[in-house]
Write a structure and sequence with these properties.
heterodimer; A: 3 domains; 19 helices; about 75% helix; B: mainly alpha; Helix Hairpins; 3 helices
Chain lengths: ~500, ~110
């Protein structure tokens, strides 16, 4: 029994071990990392299975009990994010292998791609450790530590390309994430001073109106919003994401911003929702509306493909925050499912898009949208992956984005919150415009273009296609994540009715 | 009374550091500002570990301070490496520009 319980540490310790080994054993770094990514996928599958049978689990690492020990726990939302991270982890690892192999075959500067690959694998595994740790932690101070692990490794990954623009962006990214986590940490101290506990479960029970709570929530929220790059605190995101290497952009845009958002949402809805005033939820909603509209307009003005995708992240993140006032009116469980669908759909789609953009950039040598006409002739799979991911961003059925937007729209209309509904629809309109602007370029072959045979780069093309198809077909798989969420709820009510575990 | 003094000092340090981090343009000053911010939080935490009613010391905030110091050292190290690299890249660019100008002058 005790052995079966310890599966929960695998998603944290497998990538951490791999990070150290990949640093030491340079030759096998790809295989070590891929093995760790597959092992965490297996562990997450075991955890999901155990969750469906036994309900939420908790595990004190090393037998040290909280508050001084570290406690890992699983629940429905955390498991969905873990599944997403594990699947994306395997996909990104395969793509990164293809990317670096091609770069090493045809280097622009001898020796540079090798050095980049050497540092990529340990940092990427460290990133995976931080993300899995964030989803599994059950204590707001340990969550701070995982935030820092994510922030440091993300900034180091963003600096990998070594160009001066990416160094500037990475330093700014690091400082912004430092500022965000300091603000969060001060909030944690306020919470501890007020309630005397750090554990999420104990906080949930203890949360009562108190003078320090609003200050604590304001500090933690600002810190996390800054890290998630929600409008108007998004200024650091486009340069950092657009100047990084392609696999790194996929990691940063798909997975990293979701981590801090997940924590923000959990704090607002699982713990402090009875304490917060309605005005705070509306304030978050207007930030989201601003992000959707401002980000959408900025996307349309971009001339470079990677910058366009980065700005579209700013816009799509708005949907996650606009869910706050709707969830406040419509009850928490509907909100969790809408937000999780949005987050996972966007993660898969954005990873696929950055992968395709990277492949296109490797083959064309640039990413000026104007000069990308007819790329479909060389890279049909990649062009299709880009278009399929675009379907999710627009929110057409049967994509995950469709399910999420549909749930949000239904809640907005049922609660007579017309303004939010209008913003949601306007955002889809803008997304349609910016997706088709690129897709039209990729698919229309100009008549004067010479016919060139298709180039082959399997590891570059197929992972992108699979991630895009996942985001596209997420709507068809909708019952499974919903079952995970409901299973958690049933167990929770049973626990409260039975007077504790 | 002293606890309040420490808490207020800690918060003031946090605000000073925040100001430096946002306003100062030089990377080194920004990094130092971040360090001052974290020192402020740690002072605040240490002050929070004293329980006025019983006179006991709470161990949890102290464990948090220790962890926080380690994290802060790591971030400072990464930030310093990044800013050094940035400076090197800028120097290299300037040198290359100067060389090109000299070659152009010689060509004329």
């Amino acid at each position: 029994m005790a052995f079966a319980d310890s599966w929960i540490v695998v998603p944290v310790f497998a990538p951490l071990t791999a990070a150290l080994l990949a640093f030491l054993v340079r030759r096998a770094s790809f295989f070590i990392s891929l093995a760790a990514a597959c092992l965490s996928l297996l562990a997450v599958a075991v955890l999901v299975n155990r969750f469906l049978v036994n309900g939420p689990a908790a595990y004190a690492v090393g037998g040290w009990d909280p508050p001084l020990g570290i406690c890992l726990r699983t629940d429905g939302p955390a498991l969905i994010m873990l599944v997403l991270t594990a699947v994306a982890g395997v996909g990104i690892s395969l793509y990164a292998k293809g990317y670096f192999t091609l770069r090493i075959e045809r280097p622009s500067r001898v020796g540079r791609p090798e050095r980049q690959e050497r540092f990529f694998w340990p940092l990427w595994m460290l990133q995976l450790t931080g993300l899995n740790g964030l989803y599994l932690s059950g204590d707001i101070f340990n969550l701070y530590v995982t935030l820092e692990v994510i922030g440091v490794s993300a900034a180091a990954l963003a600096a990998l390309s070594g160009k001066s623009a990416s160094l500037i962006a990475a330093l700014r990214y690091l400082l912004v994430s430092l500022l965000g986590s300091m603000s969060y940490l001060l909030g944690v101290v306020f919470v501890y001073k007020t309630y005397g506990v750090l554990d999420l479960g104990l906080l949930q029970a203890a949360a009562a109106p108190a003078p320090g709570v609003i200050a604590a929530m304001a500090l933690m929220s600002v810190g996390l919003l800054l890290k998630t790059a929600i409008f108007p605190m998004h200024f650091w995101l486009p340069p950092a994401h657009a100047n990084a290497l392609a696999p790194v952009s996929a990691i940063l845009s798909g997975l990293v911003v979701k981590g801090s958002f997940f924590l923000l949402f959990r704090l607002w809805f699982d713990i402090f929702s009875p304490v917060l005033p309605a005005a705070a939820f509306n304030l978050m909603g207007s930030l989201g509306a601003g992000a959707i509209i401002w980000g959408g307009v900025q996307v349309l003005r971009q001339q470079r493909l990677k910058l366009l995708i980065a700005y579209s992240t700013v816009s799509q993140l708005g949907y996650l925050v606009i869910a706050f006032p709707l969830a406040f009116a419509g009850g928490s469980s509907q909100a969790w499912s809408a937000v999780l669908f949005m987050a996972s759909g966007h993660a898969c789609a954005k990873i696929a898009m950055f992968m395709s953009a990277g492949t296109i950039m490797l083959h064309a040598g640039h990413d000026r949208i104007r000069d990308l006409a007819g790329i479909r002739a060389y890279l049909p799979v990649t062009a299709f992956a880009y278009a399929a991911a675009g379907v999710n961003l627009i929110g057409l059925p049967p994509s995950g984005g469709f399910i999420a937007k549909w749930m949000l729209l239904i809640t907005a209309l049922a609660g007579h919150q017309w303004l939010w509904a209008v913003v949601l629809l306007a955002g889809s309109f803008l997304a349609t415009a910016y997706v088709f602007r690129v897709v039209a370029q990729l698919f229309v072959i100009p008549p004067d273009k010479p016919v060139i045979t298709r180039r082959r780069a399997g590891l570059l093309e197929w992972p992108a296609l699979i991630m895009a198809l996942l985001s596209l077909l997420l709507g068809l798989m909708a019952p499974y994540p919903l079952r995970l969420l409901e299973a958690g709820q049933i167990v929770r009510t049973a626990m409260t009715m039975g007077g504790g575990p | 009374m002293t606890t309040i003094l420490y808490s207020v000092t800690g918060l003031l340090l946090f605000v000073f550091g925040l100001f430096a981090l946002i306003v100062c343009p030089h990377p080194l000053r920004k990094i130092l500002g971040g360090n001052v911010m974290s020192a402020g939080i740690f002072l605040f935490l240490v002050a929070a570990s004293y329980r006025a009613d019983t006179g006991e010391i709470d161990a949890v905030p102290q464990a948090m301070v220790l962890t926080g110091i380690v994290v802060s050292v790591c971030i400072t190290a990464v930030a310093l490496v990044l800013s050094t690299r940035l400076q090197q890249a800028a120097d290299q660019g300037a040198r290359r520009r100067r060389k090109r100008r000299r070659e152009e002058d010689a060509g004329e």
